[in-house]
From TrEMBL:
SUPFAM superfamilies: GAF domain-like, Winged helix' DNA-binding domain. GO terms for molecular function: DNA binding; DNA-binding transcription factor activity. SMART domains: HTH_ICLR. It holds the Pfam family IclR_C. Keywords: DNA-binding, Glycerol metabolism, Transcription, Transcription regulation. The keyword rRNA processing does not apply. The keyword Ribonucleoprotein does not apply. InterPro entries: GAF-like_dom_sf, HTH_MetabolicPath_Reg, Tscrpt_reg_IclR_C, Tscrpt_reg_IclR_N, WH-like_DNA-bd_sf, WH_DNA-bd_sf. May be an activator protein for the gylABX operon. It comes from Amycolatopsis pretoriensis. Residues 68-247 form the IclR-ED domain. Residues 5-67 form the HTH iclR-type domain. One of its GO terms (biological process) is negative regulation of DNA-templated transcription. This is Glycerol operon regulatory protein.
């Protein structure tokens, strides 16, 4: 049987060292800790960076574990933890926005609603927990789709406004990544709209989304864009949940 491969052992040692550390480490610190030549440590780090297993801070040049490696270990955050961390923020978002709040996580190419707060009024509403929403026709889904969720080829047109072409979806996802939020207006149900923002965990991985939904004339401006006040509330809630989950950036 062949023996162990030294370069892999050294790469594993670097990853373990970064996992134990409380912050980022420089090449010199890593080389000294593992008794490696600085050039050797740097070469391994660059290789690990190339596959997304480590990330380098642009300002300091130091390294930390990368999102790709964290994603391998956690896949997506356990939905029970996501829900428990987000409950208080979801309640606060409903109170501030006056609209219903849903938290979604990816599940088999769709969005699983893991928590739902009713709109704080006396209107008749039904509980959406456990409901599966389409990725391409919901604000929650667009957020998840923009951050590495695979979309099936055949897309159902729920309304005449539903995005059903790959070109339109890719364009929408690019806008979500650039803006940091998603919206939909009468794309799943005519007359209903939603705004959502990503929830991030350790390493900045998007593990879910939180958003508001309601009548289009309450959620959107006359031109169809989200009402700025609601958008601010949604993004603030997403940041708060992300902080509770250990995200250092979003």
């Amino acid at each position: 049987m062949p023996g162990p491969i030294q370069s892999i052992e050294r790469a594993a040692a670097i990853l373990r060292l970064l996992a134990r550390g409380s912050g980022r480490l420089g090449v010199g610190e890593i080389a000294e800790s593992l008794e490696l030549a600085k050039g050797t440590a740097h070469g391994i780090l660059r290789t690990l960076q190339g596959v997304g297993f480590v990330e380098q801070d642009r300002d300091t040049g130091k390294y930390q574990l990368g999102a790709a490696l964290l994603h391998l270990g956690t896949s997506y955050l356990d939905v029970n933890e996501l829900r428990s961390r987000a409950i208080n923020w979801a309640d606060a978002l409903a109170a501030r926005s006056g609209e219903a709040v849903r938290i979604g996580a990816p599940l088999e190419g769709r969005v699983l609603v893991v928590h739902h707060v009713f709109r704080p009024d006396d209107s008749l509403q039904s509980l959406d927990v456990g409901t599966l929403l389409p990725l391409h026709a919901s604000a929650l889904g667009k957020v998840l789709l923009a951050y590495d969720t695979t979309l099936k080829a055949d897309l159902e047109p729920y309304t005449r406004r539903t995005l059903v072409t790959q070109t339109a979806i890719k364009r929408a996802c690019a806008k979500v990544r650039e803006a940091g939020w998603a919206s939909e207006n009468s794309e799943m149900i005519s007359g209903e709209a939603g705004i959502a923002a990503p929830i991030r965990g350790h390493g900045g991985i998007v593990v879910g989304a939180i958003g508001v939904s309601g009548p289009a004339d309450r959620v959107c401006e006359p031109d169809g864009t989200p009402i700025p006040r609601l958008l601010t509330h949604v993004r603030d809630a997403a940041r708060a949940v992300s902080r509770d989950l250990g995200a250092s950036r979003w």
